[in-house]
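Appendix B. Worked example

We walk through a single record from start to finish. Start with the input: the chain for YfiR family protein, Fulvivirga kasyanovii, length 169.
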Amino acid sequence: MSGCFKYMIVTALLLAMQAPLKAQESSYSDLQAIYIYNFAKYTSWPQEFNTFTIAVYDDAAMHKVISQKLVDKTIKGKPIEVKLIYSVTKEDFFHLIYLNRHHSKSLAEVIQNCQQQNTLIVTENDQIKKGAMISFVVIGNKLRFKVNQEALEDKDLIASQGLLSLAMN
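Next comes the structure step. The output line below is what the pipeline stores for this chain.
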């Protein structure tokens, strides 16, 4: 077997193995987007709003997925605006901020800059103990989530009993 032929076989096998991973990753992001929508839908904010704003922290791929999945959706009858952000200042206001696992180091700064606001902070990799209000966790092949009810209450956010009942303890 020639070296070129072996290289082609190995390349084909690697490409074939990556296809399911990309499909799995896409499905994971799609599922997260649906969860994020439901987190927003089943949480109550103390103030009225004309547009519900979701900020995706430095993750263009997830911004695209959420934007596509929520294009015709509403929260409390109001349109949803999905923004891609790279920082959060004290002057910014977002109803919900999503940080993926690669930005967990930025969580403390985001929490600090949202201290005076009613912002729902959603993360990955079980960041509940670090101040996230809702955090995705993967158990086996299942996407689950945890809720920090105390952190929600500190921001005057109220999660529905249905949402709380689906959360992991």
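Two observations about the output. The chain has a mean pLDDT of 87. The chain has one domain: 27-166.
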